[in-house]
């Protein structure tokens, strides 16, 4: 298997180019290769595939082997990969995802390489049952949730994949490892959930830490940053454009009033290339 190790603000992926390299059981392979001690090490395994509806198709498998519907940081890496490797020479491309449809991507290029990527992440899904949560409501905003005797308030947003946004006093120092996994697997979330702990510092900036479904604590989450901005507009905590500061760096997110789409802008980087003998 030939692969390229890439990351979006430290949220890291093993990028594999082409259908010929897709094994029958990508889920088991993800578990092996994402392992940080016995494998290459990554938050997810990402395949770039042909599409009938878009220029490219992307599949993202979390480090625990579960397949996700969408990934904001991976889509920027895929866009950089296809441009930098000459799979396209266009600076505007489309990428098909499993759960968020076809997304329009715009590249900023310097010296022949993509340095920043703006993605139209589509419309957020806010209906409780569609996120999905077990709550039958048009919107789930600041809803109480109890875990181990502690009550949090969460706002539910799907960006193709499910998120629960929780405001805390100091997101940067929040005890992710204790509360993240309990919330991820809470019975209120039938497909589990990505959990964002957020502190809003001004109408245009918030700190966010994430516990990802299927990957645990990661340095950044693009869809999580989008969900955070949407939740913060719904709760009137920020304006429609804000910087979301993650452990790995900043993402610039806009929830456009005219088309109801969320736009994410941020970097992507290549780390190294390699090949690995795989038995599957
Ligand atoms: N890191 C991602 C999201 C990856 C998928 C997620 N763990 C899920 O299961 O939904 C991002 O940047 O959006």
From TrEMBL:
Which cellular component terms (GO) are annotated to the entry? Answer: cytosol
Locate the site labelled Could be important to modulate the pK values of the two catalytic cysteine residues. 163, 212
Top-level division of the source organism's lineage: Bacteria
Q: Which PROSITE patterns match?
A: DAP_EPIMERASE (PS01326)
- Which amino acid positions bind substrate, per UniProt? 11, 62, 72-73, 161, 194, 212-213, 222-223
Query: Where is this protein found?
Result: Cytoplasm
Write down what this protein is called: Diaminopimelate epimerase
Q: Which organism is it from?
A: Paenibacillus agaridevorans
Q: What is the lineage of its organism?
A: Bacteria, Bacillati, Bacillota, Bacilli, Bacillales
């Amino acid at each position: 298997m030939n692969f390229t190790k890439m990351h979006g603000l430290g949220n890291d992926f093993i990028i594999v180019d082409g259908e010929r390299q897709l094994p029958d059981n990508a889920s088991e392979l993800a578990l092996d290769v994402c392992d940080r001690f016995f494998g290459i090490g990554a938050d997810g395994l990402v395949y770039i595939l042909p599409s009938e509806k878009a220029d490219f198709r992307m599949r993202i498998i979390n480090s625990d082997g579960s397949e996700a519907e969408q990934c904001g940081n991976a889509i920027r890496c895929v866009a950089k990969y296809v441009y930098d490797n000459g799979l396209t020479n266009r600076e505007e491309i489309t990428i098909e995802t499993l759960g968020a449809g076809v997304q329009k991507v715009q590249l900023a290029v310097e010296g022949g390489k993509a340095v920043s990527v703006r993605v139209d992440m589509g419309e957020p899904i806010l209906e409780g049952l569609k996120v999905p949560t077990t709550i039958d409501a048009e919107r789930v905003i600041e809803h109480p949730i109890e875990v181990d005797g502690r009550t949090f308030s969460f706002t539910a947003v799907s960006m193709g994949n499910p998120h629960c946004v929780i405001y805390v006093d100091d997101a940067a120092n929040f005890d992710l490892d204790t509360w993240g996994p309990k919330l991820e697997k809470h019975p209120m979330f039938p497909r589990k959930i990505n959990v964002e702990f957020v502190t809003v510092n001004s109408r245009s900036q918030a700190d966010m830490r994430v516990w990802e479904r299927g990957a645990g604590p990661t340095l950044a989450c693009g869809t999580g940053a989008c969900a955070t901005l949407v939740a913060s507009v719904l709760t009137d905590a920020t304006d429609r454009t804000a910087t979301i500061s993650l452990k790995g760096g900043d993402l610039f997110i806009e929830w456009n009033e005219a088309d109801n789409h969320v736009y994410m802008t941020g970097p992507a980087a290549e780390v190294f290339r390699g090949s690995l003998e795989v038995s599957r």
